[in-house]
Amino acid sequence: MKRALSSKKRLILLSGFLLAFLAVFNASTYILYVRAKDHLDAELGERLRSVAVLLTHTVEASKSGVSEATGIDPDLSALLHTIKAENLLSNIVVLTPEGRTLVDLANVSVVGETNPFIELDLSAVTLARSGLSAYTSLYRSGDIYMKSAYAPIFAEDDEVIGIVGVEAGAAYFDVLRALSNAIIVVDVASLIIIVALGFLFYRQSLSLDRAQAAVIRGENLATMGRMVAGIAHEIRNPLSIIKTSAERLGKKYGAGDEVFSYIAEEVDKLNDILTGYLNFAKAGGQERRPHSLQKIVQRCLLIVDQEIQAAGIDVISNLPARNIMILGDDKRIQQAVLNILLNAIHAVPDRGRIEISMDVRSKQALVTIKDNGAGIPRKNLREVVKPFFTTKEHGSGLGLSIVSTIVEEHSGSLEIASEPGSGTEVSIVFPLAPKS
Question: pTM for the complete prediction?
Answer without folding.
Answer: 0.45
